[in-house]
Structure formats: C-alpha cells, structure tokens
Predict the structure.
Amino acid sequence: MSAQRIYLAGPEVFLPNMAEVQEAKKTLVREYGLVPVTPGDADAADFPTSHEKGMAISARDETLMDSSDAIIANLTPYRGIAADTGTCFELGYMSAQGKPAFAYSNEAKNHHDRVLEYYGGKVQRDAKGLPRGPDGLLVEDFDMIDNLMLQGGIERRGGAVVAGHAAADAMFSNLAAFTEIVKIAAAKLL
Amino acid sequence: MSAQRIYLAGPEVFLPNMAEVQEAKKTLVREYGLVPVTPGDADAADFPTSHEKGMAISARDETLMDSSDAIIANLTPYRGIAADTGTCFELGYMSAQGKPAFAYSNEAKNHHDRVLEYYGGKVQRDAKGLPRGPDGLLVEDFDMIDNLMLQGGIERRGGAVVAGHAAADAMFSNLAAFTEIVKIAAAKLL
C-alpha cells in the first residue's frame, strides 16, 4: 500500500507556537508510519487584500485535503463551547470524499455537558418534554463530542473519536488524546 | 433544466418553533422556483440509545445532501461567536461534491469584529506584529463572515454570502438575509 497521507485539521494554526505544535504532531504521525499534511498560512505579501489572502489559504487547504487519504480533526472547543468552524468544514469536506475520518478533543466534557454548563444549569422541559435553554434552543444529547453530523460522519465511516482531559492551560498543547487517535488511525489505515 | 434541490442547513432544527421557521423558509424557496430540502429529526422511538439516534440523523441528513444540488447555510452565530458546527460540516460536505454553496448570517458584525468583542478589546500585537488575544490566539481578519474555509469554499465556487442585521431577539426568525440569498441562488441556478 502506498503511503497514507493524513490531513491534520485543527485550530493549531492560530497558536503563538503554531510551528512547534505542528512539528510535534507531524513527528508523532510519522512515528506511526503515516505521512502528515498540515494546513498553513499563505504568504501575506502576495495578496493585495486580506480577503484575497483568505481565499488563497482556502484554496490551498482544499488542495491539501484533496491530496490526502484521511483526516484527523482536533475538535477541542475553540473560543466557546464548540469546535473550530473551519475544522468542521474540513471534516465534512473529507467525509464527502469518502475518506476515513478521525477526531479528538482535549476537553473531557461532552457536547451535552458543555451546553448545560453554557446555560448555567437553567434548562427546562418544554410542553413536549424536550429540554431547552432560557433562549428556547434544544439541549440535544446524543452522547457525542460535538454536533451529531461531526461524530456521526466519522463513526459511520469506520473512524473513531477520542476525548482526552487536558488541563485548561494545555488545551492546545497536550498531545495525549492526539497520540491515541493517531494509533487508532494507523491501525485502521496501514 | 431539472428542478434544483436546495439543502437548507442551519441551527433552525434546535428552535422551539422549528416547524414554523422551516415552513416559512421552504415557502420562500419555492416562490423563487427552487425545491427546498430540510434536515430534520428522526423518530426517537426507533432507536434504543440517543447515540444511535444521532447516527441515524447523520445518515439521513447526508443522504438528503447527496440528493441536493446546492446548499444555503445559515451561519448566524450559535451559542457563542461562531456558526453552528453541524452546519459548517454540511457546508464542507457539499463543497467537496462541487455543488454551489451559499450562506447568510443574521449578525451584521463580521468574524473579526465578533472576535474583538469576545476579547473585550484586549488584543495586542506580538513580536511579529500579529494581533493576539490574551489567550495567545491569533485574531485573524480576512474580512469574512466566519472562518475563511467557509466563505472561501463558497466564493471560490461562485456562491455568495449575505450578512443581514437582525435584532437580538429575531436572530433565528428574521428572514430578510435569507430571502436575499435565495434570490441570488435562484439567479445563479435557474
């Protein structure tokens, strides 16, 4: 079998130590016999506007995904209680291509628990018995790491999801859950 | 040309008046000559666990997307400053199939402005001159509605994004921006 290229999606691109974290992830992926592919920044100097730069990064990252065989998505909650939206787009993009998808989160609390926390426990049953927040929104509970389209898309393609439990100050540096999912991905792909 | 089926992605499925809002959206889509396709809940009684129910909804919504010709995604911020993660997955899913994608938001403030607000204005330049929040995360500014993968994926496929300005209590009921994007989608697709 030819080398298996794994696209590493996640909000690492926004970290101050992006290069260091991505290198650490790439090293781990290589140790398990897979070829890491990481998204990245396009050179700002080449684009007259920030919008065009964003378009160019989008094009490049899609091309990188097209050339990859599988995806590992970092779904650790990002600036709130849910995964990074760009990472979710990428997970859907790879799933539509029928490629094996894997994900992890460094947050132990699942989607339901995070939503309950978001509402400060102020969840009440409606007339139909459905739990809703003070804003009326349904507090869905599918025993999943995030929205059901993400974990459903992964598991229905034979992939897996790992939930770790990193300290608050190591949410984007702890690689324990990532290491575990790389092992699982390697076992499935190689 | 055969009927154009439009998948209407968005967090409407979590609203207390889901059926009413979805019916209003479907009516509008039909008025412009397109065929609306909406995600929905699977019957809970058929599944022994909530996890299995979630998997079934995921399967059904993917099938609905596979049978659709284009997508209109509601990227209005959901429980925080970013779009619903399931909607983002769906946008990536349809983009990977090369289908025309369109989106709207009822929030006038773009991604950059929402992130600045999230940090309460406490954004500082790092040694390289890049703006970062107190948590060190990059405050990206691509003049887009949300993460660049979303808007980039849409615009690079000839789609469009409309930002409305609904009142806080009408974020998920105001259909002005939706109406505008339906018009644009119909003009492109028919």
Remarks:
- The longest strand of chain B covers residues 5-9.
- Chain B has a mean pLDDT of 95.
